[in-house]
Structures are given as C-alpha cells and as structure tokens.
Amino acid sequence: MASQAADAGARAGWLRGIGAVHEESWTAPDARRRLQLVLAGIWLLDAVLQFQAFMFSKGFSQMLGATAAGNPAVIADPINWSAKIIAGHGTATNAVFAFIQLAIGLGIAWRPTLKLALGASIVWALGVWWFGEGLGGVLSGAGGPVNGAPGAVIIYALLAVLLWPGSRDRAAPFVAGRFTGANVARSLWLVLWGSLAYMALLPATRAPKALGGMVSAMASGQPGWLSGVDNHLGAFLTGHGPAVAVILAIVLALVAVSVYLPRPFARAGVVLAIVTAAFIWLAEGLGGMLTGGGTDPNSGPLLALVAVAFWPLASAVLSATGQPGQIATTQSQSPEGA
Amino acid sequence: MAGPSWLAWVFASVVIVVAGYCLTRLVASWRRHRPSDHRVDAIHVLMGVAMAGMLVPRLRVFWTGGWEVVFAAGAAWFGWLAIREFRGRPTAGGRPGHHLQHVLACGAMLYMFLAAATVAKAAAGGSAMSGMAAGAAHFRTLALVLAFALFGYVVWTADRLSSLAPVAALAARSAPVPVLAGAGTAGGASIVAAGGEGTPGDDGQAPAGQSRQAPLSPRLAACCEIAMGVTMGYMLILML
Q1: For chain A, how many structural domains are there in total?
Q2: From the centroid of its chain, how far is CA A188?
C-alpha cells in the first residue's frame, strides 16, 4: 500500500510539488482496471468515429438498414423501422449516438461512474447489436469470423460483464473470472470462440471465393500498405478459401477449449487467440477506420482484449481477498510498471 | 476539416473555453502566486486557439506556417523536459509521462498542420493525381496511431481524477499552520506529505512548514487535458 502511494505520488507531475494528490481510497490500477481503461479507450475511439461526416449522411442509415437482410421478420422489421427514423433525423440521432458513446468511454475511465457506465454500455451494446448490426449475422447465416461476427458490439457487452467491479471478488485463475467466477467465465469464452469456429464452417465463409471476396472488399479506400495486405491476402484466400476456413475453424476450436486445459496450454491458447484476433483484424481492414467510414474498430481488438482478460495468472495469486483492487496479481503493481 | 459545421463549432467552443480558462489560470497564478503548471497552461492556450482556427476557418488568428514553428518548439521543449526526467534530473513538472503527454499533443498538432498544408497544396494543383498524392502524403495511419495514443492519455488522466484533491481541501491545507516534516508517510494519504512538503519548485510553492497559497484546481487542469485530448482525437479522425 505504501509503495502504491509512493508510486502514485511520484507520478503525479506538478501536483506532487504542491501536495495536490491526496485521495486515501485511490489505488494504482490493477490488472482488471487496466483492461477497463483499454475498454474505455475503445469506447472513446468509437465515439469519435461516430462523429465522422459519413455517419451524418444517408449512407449511415442505409448501412444500418442493410443489416436487416436475411434476418427473421421479428428481428428485421425493428431494424428497418429504426433505420427509417435515423434516415429522417440523421444529424440529431447520430449526434446522440456519438455523445452516448463518449459518455460511456469517459464514464468507464472515471472511477466514480465506472459501474454506471459499464451497465449503460451493456444496454447500449445490446441495442446496437440488434438495431445496428442485425445480431451480427448470427441468425442470417451471413456472419463469419472475418466480417465481424458475432457482432463486434456484443463483445463490448461481454467485456463489461467480465470486467465488472464486483463488491466481492472470487478466486479465479484469470482476471475475467473475478466477478462471474472461473466456471461462468470459461463458459462464456467457450461460447464466444466456439461460435466463431462454427461460423467459420458456414457457407458464408467456407464457400469457394467467399473468404477471398470478403477480405478483398476490405481493401477499397484503405491506405496503400493495408490495401496491399488485404489484396494479397484476398487473392490467396480466393484460391484456398475452403481449406483456410477449415484451418481457421480448427484454430478457433482449439482456442475455445484451451481455457479448460492446464496453465501452460491455457497460456498457449491465449497467445493463439491474440494472434488469431490480429489476423482477423487485418482481414477486416482494421474495421475500415482508415477509410473514413468505419463506425468502430470491429471485432479484432475486442477479441484480443477478451483474450488478455483470460491470461492465466501465477498459482500464488489464486486466492481472493474479497476486496476489489486488493488482489495481488503478478501484473498489478502499477500501470506504468508493467 | 470535414464534418458538420455545427459540430465543428461545438468542439471549437470547447477548446476556446479551455484556452480561456487556462489563460485565467496563468493570470491568477502570476498575480496571486497560486501554484500551477505554467507551461501546460500556456500550451493549452496556444493549442486551444490553434485548434479553434482549424475547426472553424474564420477563427484563424495566425499566419501560415506560424503554428508549425510554435508546436515544433513545444514538442522539442517538452521532449527535453521528458529526457531530463528520464535521466533522473527532476524538473518542476514532475514525471516523464506528464511531459510525454504534451510532446504527443504538440506532435499531433504539428502533424495536423503539416498534413492540412500538404492537402491544400495538392488541391491547389487541381489534378486527380495531386489529390491522390495528398491522400498518401498525410499518412492516415499515423493520424490513427496518434488518436489511439491521445485516447490512451485521456483515459489515463480520467482514471486519476479521483486522486486529485479538490481546491477546498487544498485551501484548508494551505492555511498558515506549521507542518511537521515527514508526517504521515504511510498509506494513500502519505502522497500529500511525501510529495507536498519540503520540495520547493518553480511553481510558487513554499518550503515546508510555511504558509502558501492554495494551488489552482488540479481537477480542472486534468479536465482541460481530457477535453483537449478528445477534441484533438476527433480532429485526427477527421483527417482519415
């Protein structure tokens, strides 16, 4: 505790010299808090992307309306209804969307509003998953690992649950299990990565040229280096799409079950998950952020963040103290010290 | 800058308010001898004026090329302070991360001015080729990387807001009561004693045991950094 205080004091800038840092209850961020801050940063990025000129145009509502295609009527009709409203009031609705995301990002970053913002992010993410992403193409069969399935925004909600600051933490071998418990967290991991493995085998991904077409389409409007990567990758996948889809499904399935394996294998599974997430993000063209039309960074970075939350910790840190922020993990000394 | 004009005015208003507030901090600090980080307040004034001019062209107040010199000098100055900190020679500004934040902000400003100038020159050329060259020349990827880094600093600053004392507490603490050197060196409260006493700096603080003026609100200073970071991130994203 004393070292934490000294650390915070040493890093308090000009405030150090005038004694302006005082909060007794404030502690340096632990591993979970750092992941929450990364999540907050992604929400901020989302908010600012939502402020782009394209989002205030008809193109945005058309993009939302397009997600209704292939979904059952009970899902598609509300999407079309909301797309019409957004088309009619594009400026106002989009501004509200952007400011909500900005508030969520800043709310997660500011400790007094952490729970409120995380709770709001779950509600918001579920709404956007339906009205903005058409449930990520899960029901339409159009979703695949490299086009954002099961919907990037649902992963925000998942992360909010996994990183929730509970009043009493449970013993867990990874950060993601401190609120829900290790078994529930492992089940969520299995569902997430298992569903990605399943979707990699659906015709939308496994059909000849499907994967290649998806990736090549991401190259349009990108800067030269990313356009080149996606074009080359797309050309390769056009020739070997079905085989790569099967390999991708196997890799994703291995990742899905790795969380139940002994620690060395679980760690290998997390590393594999991060590498796979990086591959997916490249194939997604970084979510189209560099084209001026991306609404979010897409699923790649979020999958990687989920993976980091499941990094198996050392055996010495498995016992919970029951006090949030007080669990001594190998990664929790100070935010800058890691 | 592309984007709805009303939104540009909203963000311009935010940075103008920040710049105005930081200017009042500078004046109050100078006239009432209240501690503050003058360098950061000054750079926020300059950034606020420059950003408002970029967002709303009619608010431009400086000559072409002038801002590039200002922010290049700013980046070099804060970079020098950061290097001094890394070498273990403390400055009144404190930790390296604090200075790096402003190196990054000055760098982002420099990038935006240079990229805007490149695009403007290409547009003046008028050909499709020059437009493509402009797109390639302003390094969209760098804009995204800078925005990522700025948002990182924004959440880092917001996380630490709760650790900063409100002005009321600081004012009470600055009452002319003798202070016991080394008191309270354990626990979170020790930060006050560990850092606050016995280390005179160039920002107006007095030596241990003497009365001193309460510093200008550190929480509002942090809020200024957050507002500047979000607005600058928005401007960088607009350049994609």
Answers
A1: 1
A2: 14
